[in-house]
Amino acid sequence: MILAHNYHDAELAGVEYSREKASLLLAFDCVGEGVGKISCTGIRNFRLGEFGLQNVVSRLMVSTSRTFAAEDIRAHVDWANSKDDVRRSMTDERARFFVDGISNGQLVLLVLEPSVGAELVVVCERVEELQ
């Protein structure tokens, strides 16, 4: 997946989640480029942490354009399944499900690493940049 916008230093400005539709829409104010929107559908897991008044992106990584190591997939999915006060760890069998699904393209992993504010991990069936 080649992104039309540069999301480095972009501000995550809006998040819209629909449990019924299993979808997540992310809106970014991209430096000098206007608004960028990313749609995630077929949500399996996601976690958004530290969303506040300022949410600046350092890196936005998507498994359709970047290869994640198996241990990184496991760490990201473990974080997405955890809560602030309870750290969860998947069984090896469950981890294999996610590693295999993401590695073979049946599932997509999206990771937003922050400079400031929001951190995000999404596991879904499809990620698309909207024009």
Automatic annotation (TrEMBL):
Protein's name according to its UniProt entry: Uncharacterized protein
